[in-house]
Amino acid sequence: MKVIVAGAGPGALELYTEQMKKAVQTADLVLTAERLFASISALTDKVRIMGVSDTISYINENRDKDETVCVAASGDTGFYSIAATIAGKADPMVETEFLCGIGSLSYFAAKIKLGYENMKLVSLHGNRKSIIPFVCYNEKVFTLTGGAVKAHHIAESLFRAGLTDVQLYVGENLSLPQERIISGKPEEVMKMTFSDLSVVVIKNYNYVNRYRTLKDGDFIRGKSPMTKEAIRSLSLAALEIEPSDVVYDIGAGTGSVTCAMAYKACESMVYAVEKEDYAVDLVKQNMKKTGAGNIVIHQALAPEGLCDFPPADKVFIGGSTGNLKEIIDTVREKNPQAVFVVTAVTLETIAQATEIFGALGMETEIICANIAAAQKLGRYNLMKAENPVYIIKGTGK
């Protein structure tokens, strides 16, 4: 068997490439989705509607058959396409060929006269991924919608997150007779209704440079304790946060670590708990000041406040209120491979953290940070030492 996966473009027959048309017309069998059936049928009568899993099964079960099968894929084969699934799951003995098509990205960008060379590409089709972090840290975001997440849901989530000044462009039923293209602010778009066959571009001219290091002066200071800049940097280095990591901040204080971690987790969310109401308000103020919108903050004690959070990949514990063992156990019940960083200034906390990590068989690293900063004294600079801070890292095996 030979399988040709051909990109069919947004859907209209006139946007099929000549190469794609030839593949359809000469194939022994064409497999495609329901939305493309009518236009494909104008080219051949050897077409069948078949879902992704059934398509893979058909290819593998008939791999020894002497036939050429064309899989007509919506859009382009290189952009969230069935082509990637076929490449990964089809029998290696099956000969495959991919033919590119006009993708929804290039089509829609042309329609709204917008370049996409520096655009962040996301798919929310069939999953509950949040669009918020992508919009916070990118000037332009393109996303596919579908399933439970539609364009008006995206607009509502942006509005609720306070991203009210961004501009949305929504393309529905692209290239088809019922095509609709609109633009507006989140408050306007959230009042409309869109179908599954929609794409969205979001422009945020106030996006945040996630590579910037947040300084102590970037935060509003209150009566809550704040982890200072040097300790923040060392703690983040120990956590090694990746863009897609789910992160917890336990004992958020002013939110300085919370916001710094949010910059690192720029394609995910940071979930923070803080027991004091005034501190929660301060965290929200600093979220707004730094533009770190990908944070969910709850006023609660840990571990009880962690129950509704998704499993964490990385966890920072700046304050445990005597519940360190219970917090670590709760996190590890959701993800035994979670990485923890605990900061401590007392010998008792150091001993407790190392004892807990050791009893759980976790790999432990300890750093003692002795920081001194220059203080002006007349015409001289005198180095003034801060109290030593211990950074204790625990990694699940």
Using brief descriptors, characterize the structure shown.
397 residues; alpha/beta; seven-stranded mixed β-sheet; five-stranded parallel β-sheet; 13 helices
Structural class: alpha/beta
Number of helical segments?
Answer: 13
Mean pLDDT: 94
Instruction: Tally the beta strands.
Output: 19
| Fraction in beta strands | 25-35%
Rg from Cα: 26 Å
Low-confidence stretches: none
Give, in spatial order, the strands making up the sheet with the most strands.
Answer: 13-12-11-14-15-19-16
Largest sheet: 7 strands, mixed
Description:
- With 397 residues, the chain is an alpha/beta fold.
- The strands form four sheets. A seven-stranded mixed sheet has the order 13-12-11-14-15-19-16, sandwiched between helices. A five-stranded parallel sheet has the order 3-2-4-1-5, with helices on both faces. The chain has a five-stranded mixed sheet with strand order 6-7-10-8-9.
- Helices cover 29% and strands 25% of the residues.
What is the fold's blueprint, element by element?
Elements: E1 2-7, H1 18-26, E2 29-32, H2 37-41, E3 47-49, H3 52-61, E4 68-73, H4 82-89, E5 95-99, H5 104-111, E6 120-123, H6 132-136, E7 140-144, H7 151-160, E8 167-172, E9 180-184, H8 186-189, E10 198-203, H9 229-239, E11 247-250, H10 256-264, E12 270-274, H11 277-290, E13 295-299, E14 314-317, H12 324-334, E15 339-344, H13 347-359, E16 363-369, E17 372-377, E18 380-385, E19 389-395
Parallel strand pairs: 1-4, 1-5, 2-3, 2-4, 6-7, 11-12, 11-14, 12-13, 14-15
Antiparallel strand pairs: 7-10, 8-9, 8-10, 15-19, 16-19, 17-18
Short description:
Helix content is 29%, strand content 25%. It is α/β, with parallel strands linked by helices. Strands 13-12-11-14-15-19-16 form a 7-stranded mixed beta sheet, sandwiched between helices. The protein has a 5-stranded parallel beta sheet with strand order 3-2-4-1-5, sandwiched between helices.
